[in-house]
Amino acid sequence: MKQKLSIIKIGGNIIEDQESLSEFLKLFAQLEGNKVLVHGGGKRATEFGKRLGIESKMVDGRRITDAQSLEVVVMVYAGLVNKNIVAQLQANKCDAIGLSGADANAIIAVKRPVNTIDFGFVGDVMTVNAESISKLLSAEFVPVFCALTHDGRGQLFNTNADTIASEVAIALSQNYDTTLYYCFEKKGVLRTITDEDSVIKRINMENYQKLKQQKIIVEGMLPKLENCFHALNKHVQQVCIGDISMLEPNAQLFTTITL
Amino acid sequence: MKQKLSIIKIGGNIIEDQESLSEFLKLFAQLEGNKVLVHGGGKRATEFGKRLGIESKMVDGRRITDAQSLEVVVMVYAGLVNKNIVAQLQANKCDAIGLSGADANAIIAVKRPVNTIDFGFVGDVMTVNAESISKLLSAEFVPVFCALTHDGRGQLFNTNADTIASEVAIALSQNYDTTLYYCFEKKGVLRTITDEDSVIKRINMENYQKLKQQKIIVEGMLPKLENCFHALNKHVQQVCIGDISMLEPNAQLFTTITL
Known about the structure:
2 copies of one chain form a homodimer. By secondary structure, chain A is α/β, with parallel strands linked by helices. The first copy, chain A, has a single domain, classed as 3-Layer(aba) Sandwich (Carbamate kinase), CATH 3.40.1160.10. In chain A, 36% of the residues lie in helices and 24% in strands. Chain A has 8 helices and 14 strands. The first copy, chain A, has an 8-stranded mixed β-sheet, with helices on both faces. The radius of gyration of chain A is 18 Å and the shape is globular. The interface between A and B is large, with 43 and 43 residues.
């Protein structure tokens, strides 16, 4: 039987609020079994970029990562955010080890192909090195990934943290019985967007189609759920979406997604 | 018989010059056997600090690391410098994994006690976790340390890179036959400071005393050598001082220090 593995992705809202982050890290540290944390960088990269006089470049509403922005992203994601999370996890007796995709050659990407927009130093994940990550897990370390990848030829890339989480989960599901958790500010996928407690507890392929037709699941939640089903189709056992309390023992109010 | 381990520390002059750094990383990647890299941050932290409007605070000519400076140091050392080194090593087929002292709980420090000066968030190394670092080496990773430590309670510290290198060497010499390399801009300890080729090839306790008396070794080199003898007294096998070329196969012109 495969060992269990939990992969938890936290979003910007949790990282930016010191109290939520502390609370989350305490719960994460207490989680039993193999685990991996994936975090974005929140607004701190934009904030430091501004202070350094680097403007966020946007084309057609999409953010471009030029060389200067990449420097800021690397500093904030892999430096400030990652090392503070690692130090706090160590304080909670969790043997964390902070990683970019370059460390241990963990996540190899290619520069996003230029179609109509050149996104700059943005990487699309090509390969997750499940062997390297498994070696760290076997040695009882807890990998903490920031949202950076590399091309294996010396170039770092900015990469979407949700994608890193799902690709790592997919790659490790060969060796582990893997659950992927997306931890954000809502209690789950909501039936009524204005009602925090209207969490849809279970979504599968069948009722997902209905929820789409009924326009209960719309807009930003659609690509998120497509991403979840992609992971499930690639042998991730289940995907859970909810807020920090989802990691509490006996938590009940969150969304579980299965095929 | 113990396995061999090389611990190499590179200084700011190498890090700041992209060509020297590339050349060094190529040589480092080719080194056989277990190895660890330790790097400082060079002047880039000061430069980014200035751009962020953070003044370097000095008291009696000593640099103070306040909360804002610590943020910059963490971003530059653990982010920008460390991740670019790791990505370049990976490009050279060296399976590097970048670490601060918080990662894998590798280096625990205490805030430097306030005597006459409060240095701020500067840590003095207390314990090197040889077991954690050995686990990474056994898994065939190459640890790359930046000059940061932590107190185990969530606080990161700025710590001297020379000290990190010698303390890591001392701790690992229990398990490995350890050689410590200090790689800087000179070819070694010079007999005549103006003559780059006047390298003293061998220094031991006996001729060190003479070289001190004859005022051949003076000023900044004295604490460096005291630090080397400290490591040797704590069972590090040998210490070598020289420039990048010291890592070339069949290198001859550098200083070897033994007891």
